[in-house]
Amino acid sequence: MQESATSLALTLISTADPDLLEIIGLSLRVSLSAVGLSLCAGLVLGATLAIARFPGRQAVNILVNASMSMPPVVVGLLVYLALSRSGPLGWLGLLYTPSAMIIAQTLLITPLIAALSRQVIEDLYLEYADQFTSLQLTTVEKIKALLWDARYSLSTVALAGLGRALSEVGAVIIVGGNIEHLTRVMTTAIALETSKGNLALALALGAILLTLALLINALLSSINVSAKRYAYA
Amino acid sequence: MHKSPDSNIVNLNATETNNGKRRPTPASNKNEKAPANQFDLVELGCTISGKVILQNINISLKPHGISAIMGFNGAGKSMLLKLIHGIATPTNGHVRWNQQVPTREHRLNQAMVFQKPVLLRRSVKANIDFVIKQRKHRDPLNRNALLAMVGLVDKATQAARLLSGGEQQRLALARALACKPSVLFLDEATASLDSASAAIIEDIVERESRAGTKIIMVTHDAAQAARLSDEVIFMHGGTVVEHSNSQSFFTTPSSAPAKAYLEGRLYNPNR
């Protein structure tokens, strides 16, 4: 049974099954969009927390760090409540659309990117602080310089965010609804097809998810190695 | 045109004698017509976590030339330099620069080179360009001219952090000079360099001083201070115990700690 499922999965992949490609395409679109939005917000928040000194900074850091481990289903539930017809953003009509999934994943990944980038940037800022003060840089100039100089480490942070987004299921299934040809992504499809006993598609998607995870890790390693080799890390 | 020990470095002003020995720069060589950079330190003090680092510092530095801050380890030299430059904030007193408490706008006319060069994780030329871009409205110096001055033209595209220690410090100095500072602070800028690299830095510093830049440097190297400085501020126990012109400091130091320092022994007030 499992053997036939595996061979079916390989067939689906090798023949570039349209349903499979559609699911992979949507997964990548949702997750990459969420990572892009999270980077915009998370990097600025992380950099600001790294260099700004204000009362309550430690409390904010703890809050951001704690948000990293926020359960996806809770995020999904909160977004669902906000976007549902009776919710405050119900008039947008976004529930059960890819946009709702992007919003949920963005909220899930932003704390992760903010917390990890804060640590990376703070370490770098400790090295640069006196020089930056000597050069009389403004806060915006400092943030821009730090983000650029930490770009290799921050690309690792971005890929960590992408990994989390691609493998996430709880939030997107609540706000997306796992609707075929509309909001079905790899993780929700695997869950559904497994429960239906359609192991071939589930296995094919699982194999692709694993391959993506491997590719992301390989990319991470090569970025780190080349950055160190050229002394930019 | 004179060539410095590093043959790639363009040195427009020879400061060596025929036998190759460096000579102290006579006061008359200093550019007295350059804008004055009068620093007055008033009741300056600094306490960190209950520990007094500096206290009761009341001195006025010479408006031109090179001022050397000397003293034993832990005397508070680097902290004094940071307070004058504004990197650290005093807990007592204040610094006045040309009769004013300096603002950020004023400080844009200052630059500092640290003992351990802090270079951006970029190429050599990008390190200079960073400052040039930041100061574009202030007519900064040309990048290639600066790199030629410190002998790094052929390494312009190399990663700054792959340079040798001496090259990194020269790049840090070139980046500081890109700000066209009227005051240049050096915190033991040659401490970890070999003598050839230190000589290159000294040449550039001397030239900048003659061109009118006020130099305030911390150094442990008495010979270097004797060669370069016009005045010496000697510190001990977080305060200034001697402030005199360079010649009299090195010939007839008036304080016991300074005498001990110049004799190369630790100062023990109970002996």
User: What Rg of chain A do the Cα atoms give?
Assistant: 20 Å
**Number of DSSP helices of chain A?**
10
Percentage of residues in helical conformation of chain A: over 70%
Question: How many helices of chain B?
Answer: 9
Radius of gyration of chain B, CA atoms, in whole angstroms: 18 Å
Spatial order of the strands forming the largest sheet of chain B = 7-8-9-5-10-11
Mass-distribution shape of chain A = globular
Global structural class of chain B: alpha/beta
The profile of the biggest β sheet of chain A is: none
How far apart lie the N and C ends of chain A? 49 Å
Extract low-pLDDT stretches of chain B.
Answer: 1-8, 10-29
Quaternary structure of the protein: heterodimer
The CATH architecture category of chain A equals Orthogonal Bundle
Q: Care to describe what's here?
A:
The complex is a heterodimer of chains A (233) and B (271). With 233 residues, chain A is mostly helical. Chain A has ten helices and no strands. Chain A has helices at 2-14, 18-51, 57-67, 72-83, 98-134, 139-149, 151-167, 170-176, 186-196, 199-229. In chain B, a hairpin with a 2-residue loop joins strand 3 and strand 4. Chain B is globular. Chain B contains nine helices and eleven strands. Chain B has a domain at 121-180. Chain B is α/β, with parallel strands linked by helices and 271 residues long. The chains are: A mainly alpha (233), B alpha/beta (271). At the A-B interface, helix 5 and helix 6 of A face strand 7 and helix 3 of B.
Keywords:
heterodimer, A: 233 residues, mainly alpha, MetI-like fold, B: alpha/beta, 6-stranded mixed beta sheet, 3-stranded antiparallel beta sheet, 30% helix, 23% strand
Question: How are the secondary structure elements laid out?
Answer:
The complex is a heterodimer of chains A (233) and B (271).
Chain A: H1 2-14, H2 18-51, H3 57-67, H4 72-83, H5 98-134, H6 139-149, H7 151-167, H8 170-176, H9 186-196, H10 199-229
Chain B: E1 2-3, E2 10-11, E3 39-48, E4 51-60, E5 66-71, H1 77-85, E6 92-97, H2 104-107, E7 110-113, H3 124-134, H4 143-149, H5 165-178, E8 183-187, H6 195-210, E9 214-218, H7 222-228, E10 231-236, E11 239-245, H8 246-251, H9 256-262
Parallel strand pairs in B: 5-9, 5-10, 7-8, 8-9
Antiparallel strand pairs in B: 1-2, 3-4, 3-6, 10-11
Helix pairs in contact in B: 3-4, 3-5, 4-5, 5-6
